Amino acid sequence: MSHARSEYEDFKKIAPDVYDLVLALGQLATKAGLDKQLIELVKLRASQINGCAFCVQHHVLLSERIGVPVDKLHLVAVWREAPIFSPRERAALAWAESLTVLPDGVSEDVYAEAAREFSETELMYLTSAVASINVWNRFGAAFRWTPAPRPAAANAAAS
Length: 159
Hints:
Pfam families: CMD. The chain has helices at residues 8-14, 16-31, 36-50, 53-65, 70-75, 87-100, 108-117, 120-143, 152-158. The protein is mainly α.
């Protein structure tokens, strides 16, 4: 198992201006009115793709706190095969994947699906959420931030 090169808390201390900017970017989508649960699913999926253990754990724990159904958390990695996701969630997840893995850009089909489910403004803010989590993932993966432990009370409930 690899070990951390630096920790999340170090980022706040070493580059507080960068930390504040990335944090602010990540908060804009929900401030603009996009559903917090939807945004957490998007951030979780991008973090899975990018292999950022810190961010996966962070967004699982945050999602649980805000009431994202546990089945969605378990199935987000295979959302295309899971009927539990709404058309809006599917469009957001496809959008997030397209913006996270960019070798061919965003297809016309993915754009059309996203444009059916989101207004122009919502799509811009959804894009800001995807951009921000991809930035966080770059830091978390590069420095191998240690995932936060599950809080003790949640450990007991999960058993």
